[in-house]
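In the design runs reported in the main text, the only information available to the sequence generator was the tokenized backbone. The following block is the verbatim input for one such run; it is reproduced so that readers can re-run the procedure and compare outputs position by position.
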């Protein structure tokens, strides 16, 4: 295994010079690789997540085919939630479905604290095996408390999150208890992944973009900040990523990660200007004008950005060119 100080991906996370911009795939194998689709013909997503051999095989597919600079564990953000005692399923083309949502104090009692070694040993086994085989750094990840809470309260995906916002604003004590329970478990989950061999971690807040800046700072940021602070002693890069969250960039930074991730909606030069030189920027190659951020002068390339590709449904195979 290469030394972290000389690794391209980790160096970029730490805002150190690299020979080229590192790239990795946000959706792991995603929908675009035929070898992944073959596995999905006989295994559902949660089955793959719970089977270390399958999770490792899928995690390695983009590394072996495309030579990317990091491997993210194939899993789902709802895996630890299920292990905390919540009955859920992942429906194709829908996402997580929770038949009995968490909307009252009595419901919260069903959500027990996560013990990673006892509750999700298959995840840690997969991280250990992937770290041994990948040849590139392994990224551990977890869903941020707000996103997990939104699935729990809504009972599934939502565009507007009305029940979640009603709970957040109308029952602040219950909301804080839910965020605290989720935050403590997410922190334990990420620390366990690092102990198993992950060399960077990403906190996904897929639904944070649905919030106003004021609501995010007051009701959501504190829980995410506690998670990121609780990882600081491990010495691994921390990435904080929100979807459709361009209006929250500075708040995502203020939560305490070394790297802030932006999606295709936010141009990388805009993110760089707003976040400043102390924060590394991770972005999507579909976001124009990426070249403005990655331009460099003579000598060693002091690139401050990382690219993650977030593949969408393809009309052709992975060898196609646009």
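Verbatim output:
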């Amino acid at each position: 295994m290469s030394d972290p100080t000389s690794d391209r991906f980790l160096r970029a996370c730490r805002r150190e010079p690299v020979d080229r911009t590192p790239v990795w795939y946000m959706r792991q194998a995603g929908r675009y690789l035929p070898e992944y689709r073959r596995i999905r013909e006989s295994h559902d997503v949660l089955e793959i997540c719970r089977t270390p051999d399958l999770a490792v095989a899928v995690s390695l597919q983009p590394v072996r085919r495309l030579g990317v600079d990091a491997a993210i564990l194939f899993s789902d953000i709802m895996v630890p939630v299920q292990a905390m005692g919540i009955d859920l399923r992942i429906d194709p083309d829908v996402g997580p479905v929770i038949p009995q949502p968490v909307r009252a104090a009595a419901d919260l009692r069903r959500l027990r604290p996560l013990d990673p070694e006892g509750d999700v040993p298959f995840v840690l086994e997969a991280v250990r095996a992937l770290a041994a085989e990948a040849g590139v750094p392994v990224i551990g990840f977890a869903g941020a408390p707000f996103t997990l809470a939104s699935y729990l309260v809504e009972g599934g995906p939502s565009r507007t999150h009305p029940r979640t916002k009603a709970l957040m604003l109308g029952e602040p004590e219950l909301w804080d208890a839910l965020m605290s329970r989720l935050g403590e478990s997410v922190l334990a989950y990420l620390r366990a992944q690092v102990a198993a061999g992950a060399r960077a971690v990403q906190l996904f807040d897929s639904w944070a973009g649905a919030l106003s800046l004021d609501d995010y700072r007051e009701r959501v940021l504190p829980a995410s900040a506690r998670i990121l602070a609780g990882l600081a002693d491990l010495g691994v890069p921390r990435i904080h990523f929100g979807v459709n969250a361009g209006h929250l960039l500075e708040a995502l930074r203020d939560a305490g990660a070394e790297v802030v991730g932006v999606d295709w909606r936010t141009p990388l030069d805009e993110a760089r200007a707003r976040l400043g030189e102390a924060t590394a920027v991770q972005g999507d190659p579909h976001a124009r004008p990426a070249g403005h951020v990655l331009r460099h002068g003579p000598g060693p390339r002091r690139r401050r950005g990382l690219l993650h590709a977030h593949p969408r449904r393809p009309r052709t195979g992975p060898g196609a060119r646009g």
